[in-house]
Amino acid sequence: MKIRRLGLALALTVWGTALSFGMAHAAEDTLYHDLGERPGITQIVNNMVAHFLTDDRIKEHFEDTNIDRLKGMLVDYFQKTVGGPDVYKGTNDMSVVHRGMHLRNSDFNAVVEDLQKGMDEAHVPFATQNRFLALLAPKQKAIVSR
Amino acid sequence: MRFVFLSALLLCAAVAVPAYADDAQPANPSLLDKGMALFDAGKLLATGGVSQLEGAGGGGLSAWALISGYGTRDGVGINGHVTYVDVNDYSLWSEGAAIGLFDRVELSYAHETFDTEDVGTALGLGKNYKFDLDVYGAKVKLIGDAVYDQDTLLPQIAVGIQYKMNNRGALLHAIGAKHADGTDYYIAASKLFLAQSLLVNATLRETKANQFGILGFGGDKHGDYSTQFEGSAAYLFSRNFALGAEYRTKPDNLGIAKEDNVWDLFAAYFFNKNISLTAAYVDLGNIVIKDHQHGVYLSLQAGL
After folding, report:
1. A31, A74, A33: which is closest to A50 by C-alpha?
2. Angle formed by the axes of helices A67-81 and A37-54, to 10°?
């Protein structure tokens, strides 16, 4: 019985520690800083867009895209999203940005996976990646239109 | 039978992996191609959970609100599992399959075999006396999305049902169980706190099951439904690896033996969207004449 209690206490401790760990980490410093500020975000976007263009699931969507302009908009939008100082001139309404693209949920997730790869290549720690993705995830409703 | 099933699982995975590598769309897709395209594997890694003991998408012991498999709201996903639990005086196998339809509905089946090993001899049932349990499950996601709804505290909520059938009716009645079959109803809430890399689940289950149904349903001490709780949390260390803990309460219906709540500490590794492996330390408490039943839980899952 003692061992079971001990085990239960251990389980709750792990749970509690994980919870407080996550909360504390989320609060410290700004995400903009943790992503490497503008140079870091530019690197992430370059890596991600390179994956878009070779990703058979989604590359067709970029056939007529001005890639340099796309990269610039993404860097501006991402840095703004994570509390950066620069101006984002585009619209914040993601349903407008993606109008007419008829994106499916699997397209959205393919983009997420390419972003994750891009962040891996930029050596962004997993927990930091998730703090960033948590800000982007709610855009799914506006971006996925079918 | 078990090894045939396991081989079939691995074969499915082996076929599926190269299929993903070749994403080229045929010019004139056949009906088969269109059908296969439904297996869009479009969900993010690990967001289908694993298969719990009774076959539903969840952790090891608890059912979660997540829909099993990697099909998005436009697709389907199927998977099979083989689970082995070995505690001091008993062992259990669970094999089953689940299908997730459009990230909305989950249908599952699991077959559990509980081996009494030497306890069977002690009880006069014979060495390695076994109980077999068939579990048919269905789950429907009602509201919320555990992954995308990061701007609200609202969890993903699902309701589920598990119909369980035990093959040892006569013996179960002899030990005081009221029924050889029974139905569990549950409501589950799952929430991914993505910024904290933490998945949290809570489930309320209406059940009559004694030891998950292995010892029948209802008993001489208490015959009716009671509300039980399942809670779990998992911390994601990477896209492939999670560590977590689960706790599940159970009724105590039978006069012949005290029944305890159970818990586990688990590690889950997702090799890819086709194969995952879960290993856990599990504590099942008292089971009939043997107390402190703790040991290992191993589960292999494969799917498309």
Report:
1. A74
2. 130
Q: CB of B111 within 8 Å of any CB in chain A? A: no
Q: Which residues of B touch A130 (CB under 8 A)?
A: 194-197, 236
Task: Find the helix or strand (DSSP H, E) in which B6 lies.
Answer: helix B2-21
Residue type, B172: L
Mutate to test the interface with A, among B235, B247, B292, B294 (most CBs of A within 10 A): B235
Identify which of B20, B92, B99, B29 has the alpha carbon closest to the alpha carbon of residue B57: B99
Task: Tell me which chain A residue has its CA closest to the CA of residue B76.
Answer: A106
* Chosen from B39, B67, B150 to mutate, greatest number of chain A CBs within 10 A: B150
**Phi, psi (degrees; rounded to nearest 5) at B33:** -60, -45
- Hey, is the C-beta of B20 within 8 angstroms of any chain A C-beta? no
Q: Which two tokens stand for residue B203?
A: 């489930």
Taking only Cα atoms into account, the Rg of chain A, rounded to an integer number of angstroms, comes to 19
* pLDDT per position as a tens digit, A94-146: 998 898 888 999 999 999 999 999 999 999 999 999 999 999 999 999 999 87
What pTM was computed for the model?
0.87
Question: b/e string for B171-202 if b means 16 or more Cβ within 10 A?
Answer: bbeebbbbbbbbbbebbbbbbbbbbbbbbbbb
